[in-house]
Task: structure prediction
Amino acid sequence: MLVLGLDPSLTQFGWALHDDTQEGVDRCPARGRFKTPSKMLFIDRYCHMRESLRELVQTHQPDCIGIEYPVFNDLWSEGMYGLFLYSCEALRDEGVDVVFFSPMQVKVHARLSLGRPKGWKMLKGDMVDAAKEDCGGKGRWNHNEADAYLVARTAARFWRLFKGLLTADDLTEPERKQFLKIHTYTRGKKAGLTERKGIMFRESERFFRWSEISRRPHGDDKEDHHQED
Result:
């Protein structure tokens, strides 16, 4: 499965391909970054990133995509959220299935693959090490590209599970928690209530099958209008 991973950024938008049928350096057949200067008019920056992403998808034609989504609270950024929306528009228009991961979710898998102890703070250098190790330990990596590759690797595992090519028994403990978590409350007002919190149960919120959505031209919303009798 060829999966495109994306690490959105207004200055250096990282992307990388992960081919889980290959070994060594061939597991990442291509990677790179989109760059825009800070002095560029903000709307032009967003449009440039969106069109660069569409061109990238058209060129490499990945089976599926994974993308980091903006985090909230103290790390919230209006600029990053705007870029995320433009990126989602590009992926929807290209009709490619996509799954969202938070940066911390991706770091958990990178930490595990490196054998770092629980609680280890994964910095940029650690993420580069994880990407390099998965690709034979060779080459020079930019940290934006490394993050994107690790997003792609995690997304490949999700999409294989979704397509029935993996089972729950094939997953690591963090993967089972992120993809398939089901929690039943035993105390309090929610006692007896079961919530499906795993990504697998959150279609149209944490993953989208845009390959199955028939797209209309922009502005053609006639089907959405309700006429009064």
About this structure: Residues 14 and 30 are 11 Å apart (CA to CA). The first strand starts at residue 2 and ends at 7. Helices lie at 42-60, 78-94, 103-114, 124-134, 143-162, 173-180.
